[in-house]
Amino acid sequence: MIQLIFEIPDVDSLKEKRRIIRSVKDKLQRRFHMSAAEVDLQNSLSFAQIGGALVSNSKTFGETVMYKAFEMIEREVPVRIQDMSIYSEEF
Q1: Exposure check for the chain: N or C terminus, fewer CB within 10 A?
Q2: In this structure, is residue 38 part of a structural domain?
């Protein structure tokens, strides 16, 4: 599971914020086959919190995918990452 809190600079409306968040969620779903959702800070104009989850039979593979997803967001999305955490479990 990955959780990101980021600042979205220069956003003037919730509609514009939601467009950026939808773009991030779509990229995570298409490129990394992850489930993704905005999990908190929905009413904040300049901040967002997104969570993503991936099921894999390998902890190493799952964490690698999460780090690649984080790097993609850093490179391609016009946001400032405030916090990021990755959590893995094995059964």
Answers
A1: C
A2: yes
Tell me the per-residue pLDDT of 4-21, one tens digit each, with 9 for 90 and over.
Answer: 999 998 888 889 999 999
Q: Could you tell me the two tokens for 26?
A: 């779509």
- Distance, in Å, from the CA atom of 41 to the CA atom of 8, rounded to the nearest integer, reads 12
Whether 73 is in a domain gets the answer yes
Give CA angle at 54 (48, 57), nearest 5°: 160
- Tally the domains of the chain: 1
The structure's pTM equals 0.81
Calculate Rg over the CA atoms of the chain. 13
